[in-house]
Amino acid sequence: MSQFKPGDLALIAREDHPENMFRTVELLFLVENEERYRTPDGDMTRNVAGSPIWVVSAEGLFHHSLAKGWHVAGWTQKAPYNLMPLRGDFAPEQQKSREVSA
């Protein structure tokens, strides 16, 4: 079972692009290996990472694509082992209130 769920906040702990390191991101959805999915940009793609990945978002986040190279997209994809969950006192008050009301 994953330690994450959609809407969780996490810290990028390992990253290929230095400006994404230690950024706080919101987890949007999990994509299984080889599964096709629609990106936040509206494009269809396939997870070829060899393991499940989370599509995550944050303002100014860099993403790498074959067509565009590294570019600011506001989203990227990360394997769960590259993310550190942010819970408890690290979560903003709005996130805490969502967890209490759930």
Compact overview of the structure:
The protein contains one helix and nine strands; from the N terminus they run E-E-E-E-E-E-E-E-E-H. It is mostly beta strands and 102 residues long.
What sequence of helices (H) and strands (E) makes up the elements?
A: EEEEEEEEEH
Shape: globular
Terminal Cα span: 19 Å
Enumerate the spans where pLDDT stays under 50 for 5 or more consecutive residues.
none
Number of strands: 9
How do the strands of the widest beta sheet line up side by side? 8-5-2-1-9
Backbone CA Rg? 14 Å
- Taken as a percent bin, the fraction of beta residues is 35-45%
Average pLDDT number: 85
In DSSP terms (H or I, runs of 4 or more residues), the helix count works out at 1
Please summarize the sheet with the most strands: 5 strands, antiparallel
Number of domains: 1
In which range does the helix fraction lie? under 10%
Category from helices, strands and their pairing: mainly beta
What does this protein structure show overall?
With 102 residues, this protein is mainly beta. Helix content is 9%, strand content 38%. The protein has one helix and nine strands, in the order βββββββββα. The strands form three sheets. A five-stranded antiparallel beta sheet has the order 8-5-2-1-9, with no helix packed on it. It has a two-stranded antiparallel ribbon with strand order 3-4. The mean pLDDT is 85.
